[in-house]
Amino acid sequence: MPEEFRVLAPLVVAALGTAAVAVLGAVRPRLAPPLAVATAALALSATLLMPAGGQVDLPWAPTWGLRLTFAADGLARLYALLATGVGLAVLTYAAGYMPLHAAHEGYPLSRTVRLYSLILLFMTAMLGLVLAQDLIVLIIFWDLTAITSYYLIGYEREQEASRRAALTALLVTGISAILLILAGVLLYTRFGTAQLPDILAQVQAGPFVTATGALIAVAALAKSAQVPLHFWLPQAMVAPTPVSAYLHSAAMVAAGVFLLGRVHPLLALSPGLQNVLLAGGFASMAIGGVLALAQREIKRLLAYSTIAQYGYVVVMLSLGAVEGAAYYILAHALIKSALFMSAGAVTEATGETDLDRLGGLARPLPLLAVGSGLAAAGLAALPLTMGFFKDEVFFAAASERGGLVSVLAVAGAVLSFAYTWRFWGGIFTGRLRSQVQRIPATLTLPVLVLGLLVMLGGIVPDPAASLAAAAGESMAERATPLELAYHLDLHAPTLMAVITWVLGIVAVLTAPRWTAAPRVVARIGERYGPDRGMFMGLVRLTTFSRRSRAFLEVRNLQWRIATVLVAAALVVGATIVLAPPWPTFRVGRLPTSDWPLFLFLLLAALSALVATRSAGRLILVLALSAVGYSLAAVFTFIGAPDVALVALLIETMMTLLLLAVLGLLPIGLARAPAEHEPHPGRRRAVGFITTAFVFVICWGVLSWPAPDAVMARAHLELAPAAHAADVVTAILADFRGLDTLGEITVIAIALLGALTFFVSRRSA
Amino acid sequence: MLLLLPLAITWFGAVALAPFDGRRRAVGVVAVGVMVAAFVALVRLGITVWTSGPVEMVAGDWPAGIGIRLRADGLGIAFALISLGVLLAALAYEVLGGVHERSLPSLVLFMSTGLTGVFLTADIFNFYVFFEIAMTASFVLATYGKQVGHLRAALTFMVVNLLGSVVFLAGVASLYHVTGTLDMDGVAERVNGAPTASVLLIAVLIFVAFGLKLGLFPFHSWVPLVYRDTWPAVAAMLSAALANIGSYGLLRFGAGLMPRELSLTASGLIVIGSLGILYGAIQAVSPRTAGEVIAWSSIGQVGYILVALGIGGPVGLTAAVLYSIINSLNKLVLFLAVGLRGWLVGAAFALAAFSVAGVPPSAGFFGKVAIFRAGADADRVPLLVLVVVGGALSLIYLFRIYQRDYWARNHAAPPSPLGARVLVLVLACGIVFIGLWPEPLLALSANAAAALTGGGS
Q1: Backbone dihedral region for residue A367 (phi beyond 0: left; psi -120 to 50: alpha; all else: beta)
Q2: How much of chain A, in percent, has pLDDT values that exceed 90?
Q3: Residue B383: HSE in the Cβ half-sphere, 13 Å Cα cutoff
Q4: Into how many domains does chain A fold?
Q5: What tens digit of pLDDT does each residue of B254-264 get?
Q6: Is there a contact between A707 and B179 if contact means CB atoms under 8 Å apart?
Q7: pTM here?
Q8: Residue A467 domain-assigned?
Q9: Nearest CB to B102: which of A538, A712, A756?
Q10: ipTM of the complex
Q11: Is residue B172 less than 8 Å (CB to CB) from chain A?
Q12: Where in the sequence is the domain holding A711, given as residue range(s)?
């Protein structure tokens, strides 16, 4: 039991911390930041204490065979470390950043509580996601990350840009998540279990696996902001910087590639899918890299860089280099969150977000420049940083495939080199162009710590490498050793790295000559890109919806009734066409003894016809009562005089009542023509169609002679036992007394309604 | 006796409260107390049903087939519980917010009697009688608020639904004609003796009637106007409690009484349901008020129930029951939230909206999973695509209106009474709770579906 608890400890700590921050923060907003940082620190230590290979298995929904299974395998440990470690850094940063930000934007400190609790909720979701071994549980946490991301992007909800960005992110990640749900259910239905290890042990290559793999891949690529579903990420940069540094660089976007890793054995069964992923990864590298070069706003530049960087990971995963991918994710998370936080610090210090108005900040902000510089060196893959190894594993995987893949890999890395310099060089070198305000140490410290970690990882590569190797092992289900060291001999990855640096330096030096090119690409993307496509799609959908409603939907009562009748007739018609009932339809004989009955029926029909054509209300009432009286007369002919008497009584009452009501109606109202009367031709058509379907049904039912009416016979036999003089009394008062009581209740309700209605009308 | 208790409590409560002025808080509180008592009695009955099988009795101690038989099985209990729960929540909401009309508490109690009776009777004519009690009470309730808009909506609701009642009564009469009995077991047994073509037409008649009650495409013409213009709590009662008659009726008369006809028309049901899902979702994209969006959304949502019914079998029927219950909960929270202002309400609306879209952790997620399961079981790929599209559209229409109503302009109106807001949020949290611990609901609906297919209770 204690070991089981140790697996769940980070999750539990984060969940409790979320609740604590939400509740205590609502009472005392100042408590929220320290509490959030403490929660993250506790969650981090709990993650470090997780027993390797520990597992928890609890029953959850036995009816569907779902279990709460969590396991601390290598992959889960790596991601849990990232989620809690980067989370701790970012929350520390947020404690310094949010008060400043709130003051700038002019809202009270109490509003920032929501941000802390949502970030912690996200951390909980992320931990649950990486630990889960049950597919349904995994999907639940997957969507929870999307929901928290939605609320964090829409944090400044008064601003239109925030709302739009939040909706875009929700639609892209939410709709793609439906595909994941579908894939999950398909696997669950096919293999009869939702346990991922059991499913992965059973899958075999084939169209089913390719299809589910494709569904999962779409969800994962949307989450990791891969082309063409990347456009939500740059928009998401409207969120406060801690959110961008955590969710939209290190954690949530990493969830996509996490999922690809989690189901790696399934994806590996389909070479076609692997190739599609490869192409998608390269496309993201290219488009993300080029567009990063076109951005002026520093956070958007980083967002495009993130798109490109996860492109690397997708490429590696599709090449089967799972341990390299794991290492890459770790390195990138540290680097990118440090860069985002330095971007936020720069903006708080200068009030600027635009590269054109920034520069020369190395002197006023030296520590930030160092921390950020170390991270940037990592992103540019310079030696003595983790970044060097991240590109080395990438190049190693690419050169194994060789040919075009190697060339593309180098090209992508050159782009990274160029935009990294554009970011760091643009901010910290050159002429100082803005006033600089003092910023609290909590804004610099996390950047510096992460920067130093990036450097440390480059000098002592083993701890990170062993983490990545363990993660790779749990993805590929085989041993995946990863040894990182500096080689002085000239093997392919080193050669590719050297080429990258040379080309990168050339690109940086020749920058003024080509800066226009990426902007052109960006402009084309704005006009024809998927972002625009989605926006136009929504606009078209709305227009279509409005027009179709105006065209199809009816607006007055008569037509509301008519559509129901016509729809019913259509259903009946379809039934008749598909299952012709004619053989069972019978035309009976009309014996002369039934002639009078027939005459009264004819009279009823004629009266009904008159009712439909009557102009005045008086004639209408009289015609309707004629229908009633004729039908009452019919009962006398079929040996039911008591029923006939009751019917007669009711008809008389109804007629008198209606006439009395007519007398009370104002004359003007009675003569006023009804509004929006349907066209007479259409009215006739509706009437005809309705009559036809009612006729067909009556005929169909009546053609079948009533069998032994057991109930009626029993009633007749048992009437004396009910101490009733006649069977009608027995039925009403005894056999079906409950019905009688019910009908009395109905009348009571109607009276109650009428009474209160008129009383309140009068008083009003 | 156990069986009569929930019915008797609400009926006597309604009669006793009828003379009193429901606008007084005490009367409202007593009515809520009566509902709670009835709910407890129903749970008590439910426990007996789940542990030791269906409970039944015949009114007047006559043998079955002569007197009216009442019967509580898993299906009936499931629907009675959710409907009574919805009515209880809606009544509590009105009492907390202040009742405007003297007859409201009594009418809600009458409606509870009617609904509970519908779900607990095993006699097709008695079904109609209880159905009429519930309908009549809801006709009066629909006028609640008494603005011109409310009255117009009430008139539409009344006229179109009376048409539905007539159609249903014709169906009941026809069933009696071909089987000679009103007892459900007798009908189910003897209906197979009649030629398929005739019974098929009766089945269509009953389908039309229940489709109309449920607000199913293409019998939905009354739905957008009525759900949009009636008072929010009333809209919640109509869409989340009364409409259950429709889904229950389809399940009971289709899968329970006429399974042969159901399987013959299964493809048709799936087609109609699919059209409804698409049509409702597309129409929900453009309206500018939350009430109307939800009204259209509900037309789409009931399409899923029909599709699940069409797929049939234990998996399909379970999905239909599950989806009906979850849909009721979602509609309850959404309609109640529409009537209020304040950020607590925004949170409640969002939680219910996530549930409608099937986004976890919410009850709606399991509804979607159940539908996907049914589709996957039946190997119907187009259906799976349709459910994905429907889910995507629901995300679009719900969150556009959510952002417009609760993010963009949340500051203007003063917040509503705290009690009502907290109630709505608690209900919404209930939806999330089910999403986190779905077992009771899954077991309940599996049990309900088993009651139809003959296995279990």
Answers
A1: alpha
A2: 60
A3: 28
A4: 3
A5: 999 999 999 99
A6: yes
A7: 0.93
A8: yes
A9: A756
A10: 0.94
A11: no
A12: 707-764
